[in-house]
Amino acid sequence: MGRGRYPARLKVAPPPPELVARYLHLWPGRELYLHPERFPLLSSPGLFGDTRPLELDIGCATGDLVLALARLHPTVNYVGVDVVGKPLWRAVERAAAAGLANVRFLQADARLVYRRIPDRALRAAYVHFPAPLLRNRQRNQLLISADLLVQMQRCLVPGGVLSVMTDHEALYGELMRLLPAAPGLRLVSPAAWSVTISELLKSHYHRRWEARGRQIWRAELVRASEP
Ligand SMILES: C[S@@+](CC[C@H](N)C(=O)[O-])C[C@H]1O[C@@H](n2cnc3c(N)ncnc32)[C@H](O)[C@@H]1O
């Protein structure tokens, strides 16, 4: 059964300029790579002008997870980042329809965005159902990478959580293989998971793979406290 091409196939118009101004940041890859200092910090002060806790969804597509979380927790800020525009346009429509003030979307390559996140700026980060490794030459495009773990050790507050979910055993295996090189992140047992994925928080891909009976692999990594 194919994995589908859902985000690219979405039929959605670009949001009007006032909604783009309110909800959507576009950080082009080349400029972000060459001149990261031209972009705001990815932090609550940098993107929301306040000091509320911040959570980041990496590869958010249409924003299912951040929109649901933003509704549930109005005093927490949420940012969804995705490299593809169309799903983010849909996410912006949905944020505006719900009148949410605590969510922003970022069209950018997440791997370049990490450099704009200050130390200890995130309370949580989510990498849910990232694209799997299909060919070896795509290995450096994986969102689950040594750099992700290095960056999350730096960007999460002590006690902050990196939540990973995948329907691919090989991707989960890759995460476990990389983990020893990130001693600042501790794998917690399922009984201690702090992210409760209720029906409300299940994303499009979560529901899709569950409906097809695929096994879902899940890990929660907690940022160790400072010594
Ligand atoms: C399979 S979808 C999963 C979406 C969502 N997390 C969910 O659970 O339904 C993977 C998403 O990751 C995005 N993505 C892939 N590489 C990325 C990158 N380097 N930076 C940001 N987003 C990326 C894709 O555009 C796609 O929307």
- Low-pLDDT runs: none
What gross morphology would you assign? globular
Overall strand count: 8
| Distinct ligands, ions and cofactors found in the model | S-adenosylmethionine
Provide a count of the helices: 10
- Report Rg: 17 Å
**What is the strand content?**
15-25%
What class, by secondary structure content? Answer: alpha/beta
Q: CATH architecture, please?
A: 3-Layer(aba) Sandwich
Q: What is the string of helix and strand elements? A: HHEHHEHEHEHEHEHEHE
**Main sheet attributes: strand count, strand direction, barrel closure:** 8 strands, mixed
Q: What average pLDDT do the residues reach?
A: 91
Describe the structure.
The chain has about 230 residues and is of the alpha/beta class. The protein has helices at about 5-10, 15-25, 30-35, 45-50, 65-70, 85-95, 110-115, 145-155, 170-180, 205-210, and strands at about 25, 55-60, 75-80, 105, 120-130, 155-165, 185, 215-225. The chain contains 10 helices and 8 strands. The protein has an 8-stranded mixed sheet, sandwiched between helices. Helix 8 links the parallel strand 5 (about 120-130) and strand 6. The structure holds S-adenosylmethionine. S-adenosylmethionine binds near residues 81, 84, 87, 129 and 143.
Q: How would you describe this structure in keywords?
A:
alpha/beta; 227 residues; Rossmann fold; binds S-adenosylmethionine; eight-stranded mixed β-sheet
